[in-house]
Amino acid sequence: MEFLRTARQRSILSETLYIALNLALAIAVFLAVWAFQTPLIALLIVLISKWRVLAVRPRYWLANIQANLVDLVVSFGFVGLIYYSSALPAQLVITLLYIAWLFFLKPQSKPVFMVIQAHVAGAVGITALMNVSYSWPLAIVVLLMWLIGYSAARHILTAYQEKQVSFIALLWGFVIAQLGWLAYHWTIAYALPGTGGLMLPQLAIVVFFFGFLAERVYHSKYTHGQIQSSDVILPVLLSVSVVMILLLLFNSIGTGAI
């Protein structure tokens, strides 16, 4: 009984410490951006919070970094969104979304949640990148787009226990990098009211639905050994319809240049 009581107390203490540290991280990120008007300090705080990634033997560093790529993409993305938004209420809302990521979505390990985590990483990462990188060199933007695509694909494939994780993730990263190259020369974005200038890039929406469609096709192949039309017809219709509507009807309505 004493052992069980001690174990329970340690569990409560660990849970309390986990909540406190994650809450402190989100608050520190917001305050760093708000106080210093630069994302660099907040990015450094995020990197320091991942110290456990390298607190192992060097031969495990690459595996740990890859396992934490999605969280890094989301965290860096939220830092960029907080920084680029000049409206305090919007910054607070973005910080609350980051807290929701840290407490509710990030800890989940079931395949369905890992898929959602990957989609969130793609959406947040690309939105932040397209907002902050308008004056960056093309090579850096393309490289970061590749990294976002690679990390999201690897996260999903890991959930499915795919044997060719690295190869397929590299290919998907290359596809996303090509879309990033196109978007660098022709970027369309939609103004988000009340955010102090934050824009929703069309590229983030397109990549989200392409990623959703690709995951549904892969899921059908993984589940049935072949692609079942009944599994993919609705995702195909939804994704193609959304992308076509964006490209044909909304390229000049409520848009802005990044």
Write a brief caption for the model.
The chain has one domain (2-256). The protein contains ten helices and three strands; from the N terminus they run ααααααααββααβ.
Give an overview in words.
The chain is mainly α and 258 residues long. It has one domain (2-256). The protein contains 10 helices and 3 strands; from the N terminus they run H-H-H-H-H-H-H-H-E-E-H-H-E. It has helices at 2-36, 40-49, 61-67, 69-84, 88-105, 111-132, 138-159, 165-185, 202-224, 229-249, and strands at residues 189-191, 199-201, 255-256. A 3-stranded antiparallel sheet has the order 2-1-3. The radius of gyration is 20 Å and the shape is globular. The N and C termini lie far apart (63 Å).
* Percent in strands: under 5%
Across the major sheet, the strand order is 2-1-3
**Total count of strands:** 3
Distance between the termini: 63 Å
- Taken in chain order, the helices and strands follow as HHHHHHHHEEHHE
Catalogue the unreliable spans: 253-257
Structural class, please? mainly alpha
Largest sheet: 3 strands, antiparallel
Helix count equals 10
| Overall domain count | 1
